[in-house]
Every structure is written in structure tokens, then in C-alpha cells.
Amino acid sequence: MADRLSILRHSRWTVGQVFLWIAAPALSLLSTAALAANTDFSTAPTWQPPTAEAVSRQLDGYLRSSGVSPEKQQSIRDLWSNTASATESPDLLDRLAPALARADDRVAQLIAFCARVDRPAKLPDFSWLADSQTPSLVRFNMRLYYSRWLAENNYDDEAISWTDGMSLTDVVSPDALLFYRAIANHRLVHADQADIVLAQLLERPEDLPVRYQKLAVLMQKDLASLDDESLDHIARRMSDVRRRLELGRTGKTVQGVENGVIDSLDKIIKKAEDQAQQQAQAAAASGSQQSSTPMQDSHLAELKAPGKVDRRDVGHGADWGNMNDKDREQALQEIGREFPSHYREVIEEYFRQLATEPGDQNVDGSGK
Fold first, then answer.
1. What does the alpha-carbon distance between residue 83 and residue 102 come to, in Å, rounded to a whole number?
2. Are 201 and 172 a contacting pair, CB within 8 Å?
3. How many CA atoms lie within 13 A of 307 on its CB side?
């Protein structure tokens, strides 16, 4: 099942890239009206970024119902307008947050917390972000603002938790919501969830900040090559355990991840042991099969000649048995170095017999 999911992820990304490469020239020839129609050649994105004008209207409606004094309302509208030209391409969430902070002290405290350089030992209580009494413009967008900080500081579980139940239409930066959800799921090795979010984010690549678009494509490629239960997969989960421990997390969640890593390692070790055992059994079976029929390839060739050989005289032409004592002793020493010591007596007896045998006998003693 794990391999199948990995193959599906890789296939989906590969097919999508090939389709874009093939279809791009043809799509460029289509008219705007044809693209607007939902044909088989195009799919309408599931989300759309709001315009600055639309957000401005939301902010104005919130201010009118907030009970803020008219003078303060105007200062907030001025701040919103001035931040439009503060940067070349300001993010709507970063424009909205300071404006909301002037109307709500809780928002100001959250922004101040997220601006801290040090990591706190314990996260603060921002339960008002989940309170239905908090105006929706403040509640959802500041949850996103906080979730972004959490993801950037490796609080991935919390980043996902704070964005649960939020719709893309609830926030002024739906691309940021998708991007940081993808980041958190990618680091938690939630490959399937990350795949879904990344695919949705890349529905509108032209509307994304460059960093979002580049990193989203890299994450997609990375996940396409990730095999479930592989050593790479296990190493990432081990890195997640280390991240949790660095944050002081030692509860059931991190213990569950640790147990999952151990189980995966056990599976890999068991698989390696089974493969080694199968190879050993195959080698043993091969050896047994060869020894049971040893004569199939090892037999004497048919003899074509009469089988007669000339006999050699190895004991008489050079006075084989008539060695003097010095030469005999030297020969025995040489032989003693090459053979076990108890052979010496046998060898000496053999030399004595050679010395006493008649000189006209052949080697086999037959006299013929």
C-alpha cells in the first residue's frame, strides 16, 4: 500500500509536468473566452486571492461595528492606505495586521510576540483566536498570522492545528494559508496531505510570491521521489522526533512517532534477514543438487589408444640404492622437512630395500 501511494504521487507529478509541457503551446492559442469556459482542457482554480479593495471594504465594515471612535477609525484607514505604497508588493495579511492592532490590543500583543527573536519556553494563551465572539476578520486572519509564525519556528503540529477548520475564503491571504500548511505537513512527513495542499496552491502559480512558487515546486518534486517506509522516509521521521525533543515535547505524540520509527526499522531489518536466509537456502540447494549427481560432467573420456606405456628404469641407471652414508643422510633430512617425522623410518627402510635388491629387476619386481 505504501509503495502504491508513493508511485501514485510520483506518477501524478510526472504526468502533470508532461501535460503542461505538451499543452502549453496549444493553450496559448486559445482565446480568453475559451479558457473561461470549463472545458476538458482547463480546470478552474479552487481559490482566488481577494483584491486590496475587497479587503479594504471588510476592514471598513469591521471598524464600523467595533465601537472604535471615528477619529481612531480614520487613523486606521489612513494606516491601511499608507502601507499600500510602503513596499513594492505588500502582502495583504501584513497590511491588515497593524491596522487591526490599532483597534484591538490583543492583536497588538500577538504581533509583538511574533516579532520576538527568542523562542519562548512555553507558548502563550491565545484562546481568543478560537472564540466565536471574536470578529471573523480578526479571528481568522490573526490565526493565520500566528500559524505562519509557528511554522517558521518549527511548531508544525500547532501550525496545522490553528489552521484547522479555516476556509480559504476566511482569510485575506489564501496563498499563505496553503503554503504554510504545506510546509508543516512536509516537515511532519504527512506526504499525502502535503501533496493535496501543494497541488491546490500551484493552481495559480502566477498569483504566488516567487518564494512560494519556487519552494512549492521543490517540495512537490521531493515528495514525488519519497518512498514510504524507505530509509529516507525513516530518517525524516527521526528528524521530526529530534525537532520535537528540542521543543521539549516528550509526550504521547513524540513517543508514537518514535515507536513508528522503530517498527519501520524492524521491518527493514526483517526484510534484509529474510533475503539473506533465502539466498543461503538457494545456495545450499544448489550445492546439494550438484553433489547428488557428481558424474554428469565428471567422467572419463573414451580411450582410443591401446593403453600401453614405456616402462622407466628409475633405480638402476644412477645407482639409486647405492648412495653413500653422507648423501643418504642429507636426502633423509630433505625428505624429513617435507614429510611428517614418523615417515623417516619408513623411508629409511625403503632405501635399505633398494640397496639389497638385485640389479636386474624392473621397478615392479617382476624381473621381466
1. 14
2. no
3. 2
Cα→Cα distances 87→62, 83, 90, 207, Å? 25, 7, 5, 17
Residue 292 in this model has a pLDDT that exceeds 90: no
User: Which of 17, 1, 16, 6 is closest to 191 using CA atoms?
Assistant: 6
Instruction: Tell me the C-alpha distance between 110 and 173, whole Å.
Output: 18
Q: Which tens digits make up the pLDDT trace of 262-276?
A: 887 778 788 888 888
The neighbour count for residue 264, using CB atoms within 10 Å, is: 19
Q: What is the 3-state secondary structure (H, E, C) of 93-116?
A: HHHHHHHHHHHCHHHHHHHHHHCC
Model pTM? 0.62
Residue 116 backbone dihedrals phi, psi, to 5 degrees: -65, 145
Which helix (H) or strand (E) segment is 344 a member of?
Answer: helix 343-356
Residue type present at position 76: I
